[in-house]
């Protein structure tokens, strides 16, 4: 791209495409666009313009265009569409231009032209390049649709018309919040399906007894169903936190323009555009009470980031448990079997690794790291604007997308196919000294401790040792160490006799 001096400006005579010799089939064709800094040759196939071109030169950082987040592109189109409707209604934008803008936005929302949103996800300027990219693409879509050459901005201008009554500083955070609403909705749906999958496994394994563990040491018996039901419960708690966060994203600062004073916007604009945004999205958007504060505040992003980190870390803990419980298959816990998904080694034949829980672990690590980034970016803002919202947006939209994908693959490729290794579980429970805990109220801690030690030394069954010691009948001991009693499913309904100290 070559930047020409400002004097190289071209005078537009707004030619209609059908009135000129078209060069648009030539992949090397360019058009000249000019701003206050000079002129640049723009590829004629591009719907973006000079401001986008400068961003491409200035921010060759991430190698990831904003179009990697379709929710953000659709959100930008919706915000511009709401603005066009509001501007038409209050009489500050010609109805024809408003209609053109709205039609272009509808095409973007339908999935067209996303590849024209090319600026990098990491950019200076508080999102100005993203807003400029949107303005230029929308303007050029409308121009071409109505027979004008791209860049005929005297017919429809990216800033004077598409950006009317707006600033990057109210458009960008509103679009980012809206994109997060879409993404969070999708995550919640996947999160709920994963929760239901764990709950179903809880029901399937409801009567499968196993040894519980604390600090990786044998503890007391429980059921495998209780363990999986616990996973479902913790996911339910996180789902509720997400639902409570969603309405916080509905507060917008459209109408604030540059810093919250509403300069260049009609006094009626803020309320009008908010109403149109509600109609377009179905969300209960509200205009912030203090637009100056709202324009610089990044608190909601930290809240969302914290909720995502909490959910990710707890999900990662569950994945750690799944990897432990399925470890082996011969020299590990081997209590459950994860679905085999792919070969686990290029050197060890037959090895199968828990690759799906592993990838979700890595998603959690990335989400935790993104939370640090969001925190630092929120703290780094100064005065009336936070310039670092692009990295906040990238961090959170990536976390939302990765969490959604992680929940889906964990459910479909792992949890739904988990089976219990029944024989191994039965063997471990029957030889576990943990069952002696259930007898402690009846025979006392000292006697129970002696039995536990004997069981460990001889590898014998606890029930046999209790009967041999004539501490209680086999019928009694088997009742007390039944799966239902050991796991707490069947409550103790009778009084426990007081253990009398031995007579000296």
UniProtKB/TrEMBL annotation:
Residues 1-33 are annotated as: Disordered. NCBIfam families: PRK12273.1. Pfam families: FumaraseC_C, Lyase_1. Residues 39-369 form the Fumarate lyase N-terminal domain. CDD domains: Aspartase. This is Aspartate ammonia-lyase. Keywords: Lyase. The keyword Lyase applies. Residues 9-33 have a biased composition (Basic and acidic residues). Signal peptide: none annotated. Residues 436-486 form the Fumarase C C-terminal domain. The keyword Lyase applies. The lineage of its organism: Bacteria, Bacillati, Actinomycetota, Actinomycetes, Micrococcales.
């Amino acid at each position: 791209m070559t930047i020409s001096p400002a004097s190289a400006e071209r005078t537009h005579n707004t030619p209609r495409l059908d009135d000129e010799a078209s060069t648009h089939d030539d992949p090397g064709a360019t058009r000249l666009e000019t701003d206050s800094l000079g002129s640049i040759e723009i590829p004629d196939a591009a719907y973006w313009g000079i401001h986008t071109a400068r961003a491409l030169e200035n921010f060759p950082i991430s190698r990831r265009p904003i179009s990697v987040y379709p929710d953000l592109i659709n959100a930008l189109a919706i915000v511009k569409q709401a603005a066009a409707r509001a501007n038409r209604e209050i009489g500050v934008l010609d109805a024809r231009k408003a209609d053109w803008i709205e039609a272009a936005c509808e095409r973007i929302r339908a999935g067209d032209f996303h590849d024209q949103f090319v600026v990098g996800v990491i950019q200076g300027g508080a999102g100005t390049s993203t807003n400029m990219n949107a303005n230029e693409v929308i303007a050029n879509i409308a121009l071409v649709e109505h027979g004008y050459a791209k860049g005929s901005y005297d017919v429809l201008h990216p800033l004077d018309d598409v950006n009317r009554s707006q600033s990057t500083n109210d458009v960008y955070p509103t679009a980012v919040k809206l994109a997060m609403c879409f993404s969070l909705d999708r995550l919640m749906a996947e999160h709920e399906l994963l929760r239901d999958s764990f709950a179903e496994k809880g029901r399937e394994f409801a009567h499968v007894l196993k040894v519980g563990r604390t600090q990786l040491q044998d503890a007391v018996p429980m059921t495998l169903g209780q363990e999986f039901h616990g996973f479902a419960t913790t996911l339910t708690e996180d789902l509720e936190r997400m639902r409570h966060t969603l309405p916080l994203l509905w507060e917008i600062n459209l109408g604030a323009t540059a810093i919250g004073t509403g300069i260049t916007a009609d006094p009626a604009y803020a309320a009008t555009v908010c109403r149109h945004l509600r109609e377009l999205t179905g969300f209960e958007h509200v205009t912030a009470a203090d637009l100056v504060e709202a324009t610089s505040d990044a608190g909601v992003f930290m809240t969302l980031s914290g909720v995502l980190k909490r959910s990710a870390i707890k999900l990662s803990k569950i994945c750690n448990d799944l990897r432990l419980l399925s470890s082996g298959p011969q020299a590990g816990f081997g209590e459950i079997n994860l679905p085999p998904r792919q070969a686990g080694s290029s050197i060890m034949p037959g090895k199968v690794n828990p690759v799906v829980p592993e990838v979700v672990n890595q998603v959690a690590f990335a989400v935790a790291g993104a939370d640090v980034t969001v925190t630092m970016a929120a703290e780094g803002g100064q005065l009336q604007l936070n310039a670092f919202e692009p990295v906040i947006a990238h961090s959170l939209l990536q976390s939302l997308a990765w969490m959604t994908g992680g929940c889906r693959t964990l459910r479909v490729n792992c949890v739904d196919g988990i089976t219990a290794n029944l024989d191994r579980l039965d063997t471990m429970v029957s030889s576990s000294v943990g069952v002696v805990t259930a007898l402690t109220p009846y025979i006392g801690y000292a006697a129970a401790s002696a039995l536990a030690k004997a069981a460990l030394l001889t590898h014998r069954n606890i029930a046999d040792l209790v009967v041999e010691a004539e501490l209680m009948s086999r019928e009694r001991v088997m009742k007390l160490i039944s799966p239902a009693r050991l796991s707490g499913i069947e409550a103790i309904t009778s009084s426990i006799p007081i253990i009398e100290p031995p007579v000296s």
